[in-house]
Write a structure and sequence with these properties.
It is a single chain. This protein has about 300 residues and is of the alpha+beta class. The chain has two domains: about 1-215; about 225-305, Immunoglobulin-like, CATH 2.60.40. Helices cover about 50% and strands about 15% of the residues. It is built from five helices and eight strands; from the N terminus they run αααααββββββββ. Strands 3, 4, 6, 7 and 8 form a five-stranded antiparallel beta sheet that branches. A three-stranded antiparallel beta sheet has the order 1-2-5, with no helix packed on it. α1 packs antiparallel against α2 and α2 (about 40-90) crosses α4 (about 115-130). The longest helix is centred in the first third of the chain and has 54 residues, at about 40-90. The radius of gyration is 36 Å and the shape is elongated.
Length: about 300
Amino acid sequence: MAAYPTPTNDAVLLARCHDLIQGCEALEVEIGLKQNTAAAMRAAWDAARAAQTEVGRVKTERGQRRKELRERDREGEVVIGRCRLRLTALFGTGFNVQWGTAGFPDHSTMVPEVFAKRLRLLSSLARYFELKPEHQSTDMGATAAICQATFDALSDARSAVNFNKSALRTAVLAKNKALKKLRQKMRGLIRELGILLPDTDARWLRFGLKLPSRQPMPQPVERVTLEATGQGKVFVQWPPAPHATRYRVQWRRMGAAEFLNAVTVPAPETLLPHLLPGESIEVRVIAANKAGEAAPSPAATVMVR
């Protein structure tokens, strides 16, 4: 399994699984696949693709719903502005109790800057003009019917955006669940192939997979960091090398001709004990795996304490 890491990129995962499905369709009877068949793999693959498509559809709809909300909001600002002009002729330009009765917030006669306050103001103006029909002006577009219709349209647009948010969360969760199941099916198929096929069997290639026996050579360790920690000990650390499964740590005294093997470890760090305080040493690391060893890293130097 280490030779076949599960792709984290969704598009790569779908492409990889498509290759696996084609391999299953061609060879499942011949090699005896029982659990992770072509039909089972394709069902999981189709479900993941459908879930991913649904996320894209809902995201596209989100843009449309947001655009509609912006348009309805601009229409609402226009209606509020017309009502403001109408009421200015009745109440004057400065804020007073009458402006508050009509619903204008924050002791201001201006169109509110906050969306929620604009929405509430449209509703308040509709109620105000219903109670004071003599204050309406059809010519100016300041009537209870216009305010109510604008409020309803804006409220519906906001609800549509909120519904889309919920739908997107649901779609993303469904997509993640479907992709998780597909990854599980992919790992299960590779495990089953590992039981049915020898590592050198060329039929691995029919599934879009490399032969397990052809593990790539490790890359060299780029650099080594040394820290003299006292009492004749040196802490050695290095960045992980691609494809490496173990590291051979070597050292030598300054001026010595040959490096000596100190330890082989699986993790990119180790502690070299029992060194002589006061002497300078060089340390290098060789990355390795079953395919072989990489070139040694550049040597690092430190004074032992």
